[in-house]
Amino acid sequence: MIPTLAGRLQTRLFVLATVGVVLTALLTPLLPMSFGDAFLMLLAVAVVGAGWELLYHLLMQFRWDKDWPTLFGLVTAVPEGLLMWGLLDLGLVPGVDGPVAFWAFAVMFGVVWLGQWLFVNGPMRVLFVKWRHRGGRLL
Question: What is the pLDDT of residues 51-61, one digit of tens each?
Answer without folding.
Answer: 988 888 888 88
